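Exercise: predict the structure of this protein bound to iron/sulfur cluster.
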Amino acid sequence: MQPNDPILKLRDVQVHFPVKTGVFKRVTGHVRAVDGVDLDVRRGEVLGLVGESGCGKTTLGKAILQLVRATQGTVTYSGEDGETELTSLDDAGLFRFRKRLQIVFQDPHSSLNPAFTIFGSLEDPLRHYGVKTREERRKIVGDLLEAVNMRRESMDRYPHEFSGGQRQRIGIARALSIEPELIVCDEAVSALDVSIQAQVLQLLMELKREKNLTYVFITHDLSVTEYLCDRIAVMYLGKIVELCDAEDLYANTLHPYSQALLSAIPVADLDKKSRRIVLQGDVPSPVNPPSGCPFHPRCRYVVDRCKTEVPELRRFKSAKGEHMAACHLIDQPLAEQPLRTESP
Ligand code: SF4
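Solution:
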């Protein structure tokens, strides 16, 4: 196993939730939360998963961990003991893989039981995975708290006694407790003040280096991903529309949706501010997504073909390796395309 080999391979992953209506709860449609994702997560990387709220990034993160099961497609884990298709395992079969794949949630309130001390919350996974004596568990929890720059004595206090940033550190300590290989950070710093965000991000990066972790970093905030991520996947309506090296995304943005997202990042430069691309309308419903390119009702470059043909995620040349994007018009620079003059 080499660094950069895939730790996870996702192939045509779909997560569709049934929409039930009426007294008899008949299924009248499906929310296509994730709609055919192909993606490799490389060992040791920080992969950003970005997009507006409702684009499917959190559901995809949960599908990676098998916290929601894919309705179609496969998620394959690759480790020392070979490849295992997680999507074909039942809950008992998944038990030994859950240890390797963990999550840090946005809201540490929801992941820490207010009735339990910090030790009570952190010892639970340890007990599940065979750390038998209480003494041993207290030693490990103390070490974990120190690893996230907190005092060992904090373990006997309750969640409400800590600030948001401290609670998020505790959430990270809990994710680390069973020594995972990959952590999905789901909007892990979004609820924190900017100064605290920076501290938690720095902590995450230090822990990654020390423990050889792989992160899937889910966020709607592209200003966070630029310095943190090795690669970034941009999602729109359950699909990946652009995937490339993080630096390349900022320097050589290909997809019109990514261009709009990036243009919305606050910058001090007044000239750049004036170039913000304002997207028209809301994200369409994932129950009934638009035909053709899902972004076409909001795209300023739309042409007739976009309304009927789904663009494939294709590879483009890049100095930084693979740069993929799903847009019919990318063979020529987008700036040369005519801007739309009529409403879709
Ligand atoms: Fe816009 Fe068409 Fe490209 Fe979709 S395929 S992003 S609608 S130009």
